[in-house]
Specification:
Helix content is 35%, strand content 30%. The chain is α/β, with parallel strands linked by helices and 265 residues long. It has one domain: Rossmann fold, CATH 3.40.50.300. A 6-stranded mixed β-sheet has the order 8-9-10-5-11-12, with helices on both faces. The protein has a 4-stranded antiparallel β-sheet with strand order 4-3-6-7, covered by helices on one side. The chain has a two-stranded antiparallel ribbon with strand order 1-2. α3 packs parallel to α5 (163-175), α4 packs across α5 and α6 (193-208) packs antiparallel against α8. The radius of gyration is 19 Å and the shape is globular. It starts with a strand and ends with a helix. 36% of the residues are buried. Bound molecules: adenosine-5'-diphosphate and magnesium ion. The site of adenosine-5'-diphosphate (ADP) has 12 residues, from β3, β4 and α1.
Length: 265
C-alpha cells in the first residue's frame, strides 16, 4: 500500500489513501412498542487510516448508534459497512468478534473497569480473551500503561485512582491489543477540563503514531483536538470539515491553569 503524506493544519498525518471505514447509506430503526425510532436515516462516511475524527451532535442525534455499528457491536437495519474493504454484514459472528478484539479498541464515558481488579489486570483482560500467555499479557499491558503514563500505578484498583487515571487505564486496555483504530464514545464526558486536556493529549499522541481515532463528543472545544469534525443531526450528517486551528494540549493546559489562578485570587 502506498503511503502518502497529507498536510492538515501544519500537522503531518500518514494516510494510506484507502478507506479504513466506509459506511454506505446506513439506516437504523429501533422499534419501541408501536413506534419506530429512526436513529440513523442514511449515513455515508469514509474514514481513512490515520485520521482523527471527532463526531459531534446533540444528544439523540445518532452518534452512539453509529459508533456501535462501526465497532461491529450492532448491525444497521439497512445500508452497508465496509471495514478495511470487507463488508461486515458478510462476516460470520466469529469473524466480527475477531475483528473487534484485534483491530478495534473501545473507550467509553463510564470507563467500564472491573472495580475489584488492579489496573494491570484490567488492561490484561482483552489479552486474556486472545489466549495470550501470562508473561506476554503482562508485558503488553505494562507497555500500554506506560503509553498512558500509568505504569507506576499498575497495582492500583480503580477506586484508588482519580477519574482521569481511570480513563487512562481504560485507554491502556483499548491499546493493549495494538488496535488499528480506537473508538471513544464521550471519553471526557465525566472529566473536568484539565483532565479532559490530558486525555486529549494522549489521543493526539496515539494518533501521531498512526492509530486512527474516532471520538464522539458534544463539546465543541474537545472536537478541536481532532483533525476532522463530522456533525450529526437527527440521524444524518449535516457537516463534515477539517479542523482549521487544531488545539494544542500544552497551550490549553497553560490557559486553563492561568484562568484557575485568576479564579482563586
Ligand atoms: N436500544 C435502543 N432502543 C430504542 N431506541 C434507541 C436505542 N438506542 C438508541 N435509541 C434512540 O435512537 C436515537 C439515537 O440515539 P443515540 O445513537 O444514542 O444518540 P446520541 O449518542 O447522539 O445521543 C435516540 O432517539 C435514542 O433514544
Ligand atoms: Mg451517545
Amino acid at each position: 500500500m502506498s503511503m502518502q503524506t497529507e498536510l492538515h493544519t501544519g500537522i503531518e498525518t500518514r494516510l494510506d489513501g484507502s478507506a479504513l471505514i466506509s459506511a454506505k447509506n446506513l439506516k437504523k430503526t429501533y422499534r419501541m412498542g408501536d413506534v419506530d425510532v429512526h436513529a440513523l436515516r442514511g449515513v455515508s462516511l469514509d474514514i481513512r487510516s490515520g485520521e482523527f475524527v471527532a463526531i459531534m451532535g446533540a444528544s439523540g442525534s445518532g452518534k452512539s448508534t453509529f459508533m456501535n455499528i462501526l465497532g461491529c457491536l450492532d448491525a444497521p437495519s439497512s445500508g452497508e459497512y465496509f471495514l478495511d474493504g470487507i463488508s461486515v454484514a458478510h462476516m460470520t459472528k466469529k469473524e466480527q468478534a475477531r475483528i473487534r478484539s484485534r483491530k478495534i479498541g473501545f473507550v467509553f464515558q463510564g470507563f467500564n473497569l472491573l472495580s475489584r481488579t488492579s489496573a494491570l489486570e484490567n488492561v490484561e483482560l482483552p489479552l486474556l480473551y486472545q489466549g495470550l500467555a501470562s508473561n506476554r499479557r503482562r508485558e503488553l499491558a505494562l507497555e500500554a500503561l506506560h503509553a498512558v503514563g500509568l505504569d507506576k500505578r499498575f497495582d492500583h484498583k480503580p477506586n484508588e485512582l482519580s477519574g482521569g487515571q481511570q480513563q487512562r487505564v481504560a485507554i491502556a486496555r483499548a491499546l493493549a491489543t495494538h488496535p488499528s483504530m480506537i473508538l471513544a464514545d464521550e471519553p471526557t464526558g465525566n472529566l473536568d477540563s484539565k483532565t479532559s486536556i490530558e486525555i486529549m493529549a494522549i489521543f493526539q499522541k496515539l494518533n501521531s503514531k498512526g492509530i486512527t481515532i474516532i471520538l464522539v463528543t458534544h463539546e465543541n472545544d474537545i472536537a478541536q483536538y481532532g483533525l476532522r469534525n463530522v456533525v450529526f443531526r437527527d440521524g444524518r450528517i449535516i457537516k463534515d470539515f477539517m479542523v482549521e486551528t487544531r488545539l494544542n494540549p500544552e497551550e490549553e493546559m497553560k490557559r486553563v491553569l492561568a484562568t484557575s489562578i485568576v479564579d482563586n485570587a
